[in-house]
Every structure is written in structure tokens, then in C-alpha cells.
Model the fold of this input.
Amino acid sequence: MEFIIFDYEDPLFSIFVLGLVVVIVSFANRWFETFKNKDEKRKISKFVKNFNLGKDTNNYKKILEGGTEAVETLALSATIRSKAGEYEEAIKIYLSLLDILTDKNAKIDIMTMLGKTYFKAGFMQRSKDILLKALQLKPRNKDALQLLLIVYENLKNYTKALEVVAVLEELDVDVSNEKGILEILQITNNATLTSEKKSEQLLKYYEINPQFFRQVYEYLAVFETERFWQLLKDEEIDGVLDLLWNMEKDSIDFERVKKTPVLVEIYTAKDYISDAKKSSIFEVNTLIKLKEEKSIATLGFEYPCENCGNTFPMYFNRCPSCREVMTSSLDTVLEEARSESEFASAGFY
Done:
């Protein structure tokens, strides 16, 4: 086989060849970008149709024909509606925006906001799907990742949630509290482990991460009460007063109780024992005094969020309002005893 070799020493020809290569590469890149954008738009449009709840969005699409101002106005309207709880209308607007927008970054922002609205409306699966699509377009989208973490948490898919945590850690986002909560939930929800194995793993976790004592005690108080009383430290009692108060009488280690004055006070107020005459805790002290008058009052609990200030009737790992973790505190309040057992423990019967 013969090879024909062209040997051009003319520098002008070299420049011509170089210029031609640059033009070809530039054209190829532009063609690829155009093709990629068209393909991306087609995929997003097809994807968006799956989220359309059968509602007519034509009215919004007509408004969007008004240009940039109309887009900004509708985006703001959707945000306001979402905050006001008008999720259906907000979703319709976001879907309309996704169907008409061409700017990639704008689409990503709208998809993230749509994912948040689906989440607030309770559509966890839809929220997950749209957020994953947004992350395909921009993998380092911190807002989408943090919301996806909460979605997986709500779906009880703790393995996936921890994968998101790992990504956020790579992006230098502090998710140490989220990681701790999720690792504990992964243990307590592991169907392949016995209660004893779960307790062993939780106790090991507690040794390394004592800041998560509340989450460990919550499990032990229900499933391994003996270990609960063995583990209970005096300095942690304030954080688990509700668990102590609501524990069944036959699950209480009264030998352990006698070693700690505040425990004696709590269970005197509960009318399980009669050893305390007063308490430094106002509500407990009141119940001890009222017990002599056959009061029908009992001890209740409220859980304020230290971050946003909202108060809730149940302890939370993640605030239902501001979505921050490890912000639940515990307040004691006096309540009217409602159940027959509460009336009895208050001395009414």
C-alpha cells in the first residue's frame, strides 16, 4: 500500500490548516451544544408531562408569552402561593414555566422550587423525582440536595438519605446532626436486627456520640427498659422527663429511682411512690402538693424549636416548621388529666 505524504513548508498553508481545524471544532461544539439543548428540552418537556396532574395550564402559558416580565411575575406568584398553602396553583405555574423556559439555570431553579412545593403538599415521590431531575442538570445544587435529603428521610429511605449526606459533606456542608439522626434511624428501622442487636449498636453509637442520647433513650424506653435504666445518667434526665413520666409502672426500676432525688420527685408526683414532699421543678412540685387535695391535674409536655420558636405537641428530630434538626427542647406544663388512669394516679378514684 502506498502512502501519499503532503509536505507543505509554506507557513501560510499551516495557518490555513490550523484555522480550518478551529472552525471545524467550533462548528462541531456548537452543533453538539444545540443538539444537547434541544434533546435536554425535549426530555424535560416529556418529564414535566408526567407531573401535570391533569390540570389545565394553558392560561399560564398564554401569560408567559408576554416575555421576561411575565415570567418573573408568574415565578413570584408561584412562590407566594406556595408559601400561602395554595400548592395546586403553585404547581400549575411551575409546570407552565418549565414547559416554556429555555435557560438551563432558570429551569433548575424552577425544578427545585417545584420539588419544594411537592414536598410541602405531601407528594414525596413527585418531589423526589423532580429533584433528581434537577440534580442531573446540576449535580452540585446544594438546595436540591438538602431538600432531597429531607424527602428521603420522610420516605424512610435512610440509606439513600445517607448517600445524599455524603455528597453534601463533599461540598463542605455541615450535616453532622443529620448524619447522626439518620444513622440511628437506620439502626432502629433495620428489620434484619433483633431488638437486642439494635440496642447493642445504639449503645456503641451513644458511647461515641453522646449528643444523640435522646434518640437512643427513646428506643430503649420502649424496647429495652432494663438497659434504659442501666444507661440513664442524672445529667440527662431533664432531656427525657417525658419518657420517664410516660413509662409504664411495671417498667420502672425503683431501686434506680431511689438513687436520684429528681426521679423520686417525678414518681411521687405520678403517685407511684410517696417519698418526696416537694420538687425544684415547679410543675412537679405543684402536682405533689395537689395530690393531697385529690386534684385531677397531670404533667404535660411541649416541644419548642430552638431555631424558629414554634411549639409542637410531640418531640421531633427535625422541626416540622423550619426543617432544622436537633432543635427540639422540652417544656413541662400542667394539664387536666384526661384518661381514667390519669384520674386515678391523681387520686380522684
